[in-house]
Amino acid sequence: MTLRVAAIVDLAAIMDLERRSFPTDAWSEQTMGTELTSAHNHYLVDEEDGRVVGYGGVRALPGGADADIQTIALDESFRGRGRGRALLRALITEAVARGAKELFLEVRSDNPVAEALYASEGFAELGRRPRYYQPDDVDAVVMRLDLRAWDARRENPAGEGDA
After folding, report:
1. CA-to-CA separations, 128 to 106, 118, 125, in angstroms, rounded
2. How many other β-carbons are positioned within 10 Å of the β-carbon of residue 89?
3. What CA–CA distance (Å, rounded) separates 77 from 117?
4. According to DSSP H, which parts of the chain are helical?
5. Are the CB atoms for 46 and 53 separated by under 8 Å?
6. DSSP states of 12-58
7. What is the rounded CA–CA span in Å between residue 125 and residue 134?
8. 3-state secondary structure of 151
9. Are 69 and 144 in contact (CB under 8 A)?
10. CA distances from 74 to 13, 46, 96 (A)
11. For a FRET experiment, which of 80, 132, 157, 159 has its CA 20 to 30 Å from that of 120?
């Protein structure tokens, strides 16, 4: 597994994975290209033997109090191996580095595996957006992560030094 910063040259590989991962509501190539080149975003790709098998992005304006996970996708054959968690943690770490205090995301209510991953990292459900994902009429689960608490757990994972 190799995580690296995504570049515009990765766009075709990202779009292939985007279309396979989100067949009914994939982003357009233009939208994804804009995402990759925005100074406000930080996109990573996960490579295996030179092939892009995952990607994700976070929007975090430097100095801003909040940030958003824009998207995460992993090739189906690479799921369940901790790669999604590694990608998520790298994006969270970038949001912390940019000074964000809170991190938000939306996840499809019909994707309990992703929702459980986010919850295991400390994201909590804030609410739901009915029929957010179209054309499937699937609700979005809106989740929030307190980045200061997440960063403190990372620095002191076993509660060492707690009274």
Report:
1. 9, 15, 8
2. 15
3. 17
4. 11-21, 29-37, 83-97, 112-120, 147-155
5. yes
6. HHHHHHHHHHSTTTPPPHHHHHHHHH-TTEEEEEEEETTEEEEEEEE
7. 21
8. helix
9. no
10. 12, 8, 23
11. 132
Please report the pLDDT score of residue 39 as a whole number. 94
pLDDT at residue 163, rounded to an integer: 47
Residue 141's identity, in one-letter code, is V
- Tens digits of per-residue pLDDT, 31-87? 999 999 999 999 999 999 999 999 999 999 978 999 999 999 999 999 999 999 999
Tokens of 7: 């570049």
Total residue length of the chain: 163
Which run of H or of E encompasses 3? strand 2-5
What's the pLDDT tens digit per position in 104-140? 999 999 999 999 999 999 999 999 999 999 999 999 9
Rg (CA), the chain: 16
